[in-house]
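Memo to structure team: turn this sequence into structure tokens by end of day. - J.P.
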Amino acid sequence: MIDMRFKQFFFDAKTVTSRVDSATRKVLSKFGAFVRRTAKNSIKKAPFVSRKPRGKERTDLRRKSSRPGKPPFSQTGLLKKFIFFGYETAKRSVVIGPARLTQRGRGEAPSLLEHGGSGVVQRRGRRKRVTYASRPFMGPAMTKELPKLPAMWKDSVR
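Reply from structure team:
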């Protein structure tokens, strides 16, 4: 008598979906880490610029701004320090970007740097509306890392 067992050949949906979910989490987390690293590396420390003419003593120094269309210079180090990524289990996606800074109106600064626009600046008790040119850093970082994503998916489900 021949005894054939076919149980091992049938599709086990729970096993397959759990392995796909695990691979998705690993691949997207790795992609988020790569984009985060690229974005942080694109932000350089700002060089100093003097406000006074060349013949005078240079005690009044300020940090230079980057050119519009180029990644922003780091003025205080906060932007570079607070770029994070996180995997969203419910949506099976990864969120990458700077955290919203809350001290003295800095919450809108990362968005203004990326997309440009106008915001309110408060200095010495006065409020002033200022227009910012875009200095994208997250979009170019994702564009640079996106071609590597298909290679990360290759043989990821085991």
